[in-house]
Amino acid sequence: MAKKANILVVDDEATMRDSCRQALSRDGNRVEVAEDGLKGLAMLAKESFGLIILDLKMPGLSGMEVLKEIKDSDPEAMVIVITGYATVEFAVEAMKRGAYDFIPKPFTPDSLRVIVKRALDKRTLALENVLLRDELKASLGPDVILGRSKMMKAVEKLVQKVGPTDTTVLITGESGTGKELIARAIHRYSSRTDKPFVAVDCGSLVENLFESELFGHVKGSFTGAIATKYGRFELANGGTLFFDEIGNVSTNIQTKLLRVLQEREITKVGSSQIVKIDVRIIAATNRDLQKTVKAGTFREDLFYRLSVVPITLPPLRQRRNDIPLLANHFLSKYNKKRGKNIKAISARAMKALVEYDWPGNVRELENAIERAVVLTEDDMIKPSDLLYYGLTAQAPSKSDAGQAQRLIDVEKKHIARTLKIFNGHKGKTAESLGIDRKTLRVKLKRYGIE
Predict the structure, then answer these.
(1) For 306-321, how does the pLDDT look when each residue is reduced to its tens digit (9 = 90+)?
(2) 6-122 and 150-314: same fold?
(3) Is the distance from CB of 282 to CB of 242 less than 8 angstroms?
(4) 375 or 380: which carries more pLDDT confidence?
(5) Which residue has the higher pLDDT, 85 or 159?
(6) pLDDT value of position 85
(7) How far apart are CA 316 and CA 415, in angstroms?
(8) What are the tens digits of pLDDT across the range 22-45?
(9) What are phi and psi for residue 309, nearest 5 degrees?
């Protein structure tokens, strides 16, 4: 039985309402009751319930009419009908109108619990399926080990400390340093580890759809809202909600986020119905939020709500002794993924990797190794396999300084040529180069490419 589910019982018989409340409350559920259909619909307009138990035979508004109203406003609503008229016709009609199942009066507490458990399990599965579809579409980030440097050991220790708590965490660091990886590690160390981890990329969402993405919407609430949609908060209920690049959120959304953090409830776009939520918040940014607070573009009260425990990830150039470990990890990963058998990274290539500044950090390193695994025709990665990333085989000497410069020029020319091929489309250019858009922007700025 799913604990603490919100259940509404709508029945005109006081003894039936009381029996259902007692039977289902014992399993940890919160059970509310309504004595007729109108009161039931009024309660549903104010609050979301995971399950509705509905009597078909009531004075005034009938159960069938209430069922229709419920399914019209929320097609995903889970409804079990109860009736003293257990004919096949009544059962079939109720199922046709969207009821999950029916149970005839009189029934035992155990039989009620069984059918309620099945209904709640199905609702949980439906939410998980929505989340799974979104996860399959999303990039889950680099699957890497953290590293052995003192800085990353300190980060790992902090993750282990803060993980078991429900404290809100703000992770800061440059693009590609592995902020989502740390957020997932915190989730794994928490008591919510068997619940959903839902990521929201604040940098990729269109402003006018942001609210719908976070809070969900009801059918017909705006043009294109052809069906009721679960928002990220609802999908993450019981688990962890990760806001990546929180600094990109508008002040309007900041205000609404602050309210959610304070009230622990949301309202879908186009609805007045309150949905109680229980999520742990982890946020990440590559910006200095304290500067944005001073500039007036980020709410100070929201910043302090998010930054209860701050974790800062160092850029890869500040922990170069981690590069060989990470590079060999990626070599093993892409050997398996690409069906290759490359035995090692040559000493000169590894030296080049360690000496490069990696503006795209761990993500760029992973892309570089994947590209090298694909390109190399040998059983060892050589400096020439890293050409497109402007890496040099060794620190330039007088005899080869010109060659080092030409390698940098190769990267600049390759990026400019690829950008031209895609008519200046940065997203397609970054995808073709095997890097993310943020890394591409850094390179375009560095090389002065328009």
Answers:
(1) 999 999 999 999 999 9
(2) yes
(3) yes
(4) 380
(5) 159
(6) 63
(7) 22
(8) 999 988 889 999 999 999 999 988
(9) -125, 110
Residue that the structure tokens 């800062």 belong to: 312
Closest of 250, 262, 241, 259 to residue 292, by C-alpha? 250
The full set of domain ranges for the chain reads 6-122, 150-314, 317-447
Q: By the 8 A CB rule, do 164 and 190 touch?
A: yes
Q: Assign a CATH topology to domain 6-122.
A: Rossmann fold (3.40.50)
- Length of the chain in terms of residues written: 450
For residue 29, give Cα distances in angstroms to 79, 128, 213: 16, 20, 28
- Across 291-319, b (16+ Cβ under 10 Å) vs e yields ebbeeeebbeebbebbbebebebbbbeeb
Q: At what angle do helices 88-96 and 63-73 cross, to 10 degrees?
A: 20
Query: Cβ(346)–Cβ(382) under 8 Å?
Result: yes
**Class of 317-447 per CATH?**
mainly alpha
Question: What is the overall mean pLDDT for the chain?
Answer: 83
Question: How many other C-beta atoms lie within 10 A of the C-beta of residue 427?
Answer: 11
**CB-based contact 277:262 (threshold 8 Å):** no
Q: What CATH superfamily is the domain 150-314?
A: P-loop containing nucleotide triphosphate hydrolases (3.40.50.300)
3-state secondary structure of 34: strand
Q: Cβ(312)–Cβ(288) under 8 Å?
A: no
H-run or E-run covering 55: strand 51-55
Q: Which residues, in sequence order, are bridge partners of residue 101?
A: 80
